[in-house]
Design brief:
By secondary structure, this protein is an alpha+beta fold. The chain has one domain. Helix content is about 35%, strand content about 30%. It contains 2 helices and 4 strands, in the order αββαββ. Strands 2-1-3-4 form a 4-stranded mixed sheet. It starts with 5 loop residues before the first helix and ends with a strand.
């Protein structure tokens, strides 16, 4: 997360918390570096399926200690996390 500006980190956290409140807590914030979009998706909405499964495993093991962030670049998905209460 060190590559993001403070305002972007705040937007990611806000999007994650609102997404969890509205849609449930089995998801992550998707940051699309190409479009600049920041959205909350449930784990089963991510593609491909093997990525979806890995994300679900990480969320389950974490016990809500972090907000998960998936950064989409033009050729890959990268998972980061932000500690809750930051």
């Amino acid at each position: 997360m060190e590559n993001f500006e403070k305002e972007m980190v705040e937007k990611i956290i806000q999007t994650g918390l609102q997404g969890e409140f509205i849609r449930g807590d089995n998801g992550a914030v998707l940051v699309d570096q190409d479009s600049g979009d920041i959205v909350y998706l449930l784990s089963h909405e991510f593609k491909p399926q093997d990525f979806c499964s890995k994300l679900e495993e990480l969320l389950s093991d974490d016990n809500r200690k972090h907000i998960f962030v998936v950064v989409k670049t033009n050729d890959a998905l990268h998972i980061s996390k932000i500690p809750r209460g930051v």
